[in-house]
Structure to design on (338 residues):
């Protein structure tokens, strides 16, 4: 029987994103696309943070292929007022 | 306290701007400020729903103060879990308060908005989960402490909400008081995102609005089981510098 070699990688990556002091992001979603290939998606507050995430993940998981879909959260003024 | 007038402002209402999870550090410093310079034209008060910093350090709190202090409207904040990460929450609170930002933790504040007294009670809140899927004060000390922390905060938030002497009430937390604004988050992590205990005390007082953050992949709009409007203003959810909510209110009869 073929055994998956990446079975705990999603959890390990999620913890690195939160607990590595260079990242400290809890809002990034980790998804497994296929064996040893993962996707990171979500929004971060600056392009610098996106760079650091890619750097840390490459350092901690050098044997995995990771696809990134990380946007920078927009900071424009609101156009509308919602009546509650 | 009183606030400056905003233009095009309908009578007998208050306008509340809110954002959470801004996670300010030196790399983010300055990104929000351009959108905040004219906030007085759009709102009467700005609420910050926790996770103001990334690591919860004094240096990051000074960045928050630089970004959000000295606006044309009062700024009211609660702290979030990130703001506790370095055990410097008291230092952060002092830095923000010294800059003029009001920091609430199981406490309240009232502003005069053109004759309408707007009361805000706030607390960080905590997790535990929601109806049918919640933790209990049972078993290991760690588990009991977890839920006790939420219960204590909720009870004291309820008291702060109840004690506000005002015309319009708002509850401000970091953690969610309802699962409705968590839609989009994985169900498995709901117990780490909020607690029914927060919703229960909100429903006992029935404020006009409950505002929270924390759930980056959640949904902006929801209600508590008792029908109180809830807004998740986590920055990745609202996708703008802040959202503005208009609440009708009548000054109390003299």
């Amino acid at each position: 029987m073929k055994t998956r070699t990446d079975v705990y990688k999603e959890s390990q990556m999620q913890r690195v994103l939160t607990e590595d002091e260079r990242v400290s992001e809890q809002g990034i979603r980790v998804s497994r696309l296929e064996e040893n290939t993962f996707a990171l998606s979500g929004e971060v507050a600056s392009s610098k943070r996106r760079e650091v995430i890619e750097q840390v993940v490459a350092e901690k998981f050098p044997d995995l292929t990771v696809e990134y879909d990380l946007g920078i959260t927009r900071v424009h003024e609101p156009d509308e007022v919602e009546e509650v | 306290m009183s606030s400056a007038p905003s233009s095009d402002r309908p009578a007998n209402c208050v306008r509340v701007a809110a954002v959470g999870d801004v996670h300010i550090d030196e790399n983010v410093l300055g990104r929000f400020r351009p959108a905040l310079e004219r906030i007085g034209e759009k709102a009467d008060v700005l609420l910050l729903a926790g996770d103001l910093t990334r690591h919860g350090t004094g240096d990051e709190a000074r960045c928050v103060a630089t970004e959000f202090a000295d606006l044309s409207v009062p700024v009211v904040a609660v702290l979030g879990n990130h703001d506790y990460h370095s055990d410097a929450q008291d230092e952060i609170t002092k830095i923000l308060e010294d800059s003029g930002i009001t920091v609430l933790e199981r406490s309240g504040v009232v502003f005069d908005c053109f004759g309408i007294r707007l009361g805000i009670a706030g607390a960080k809140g905590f997790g535990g989960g929601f109806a049918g899927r919640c933790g209990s004060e049972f078993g290991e000390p760690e588990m009991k402490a977890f839920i006790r922390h939420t219960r204590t905060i909720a009870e004291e938030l309820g008291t702060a909400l109840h004690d506000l002497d005002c015309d319009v009430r708002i509850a401000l937390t970091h953690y969610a008081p309802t699962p409705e604004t968590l839609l989009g988050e994985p169900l498995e992590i709901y117990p780490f995102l909020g607690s029914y205990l927060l919703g229960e005390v909100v429903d006992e007082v029935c404020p006009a609005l409950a505002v929270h953050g924390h759930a980056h992949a959640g949904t902006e709009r929801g209600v508590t089981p008792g029908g109180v409007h809830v807004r998740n203003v986590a920055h990745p959810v609202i996708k703008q510098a802040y959202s503005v909510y208009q609440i009708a209110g009548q000054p109390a009869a003299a």
Chain B is about 25% helix and 20% strand. Chain B touches chain A through 37 residues (CB under 8 Å).
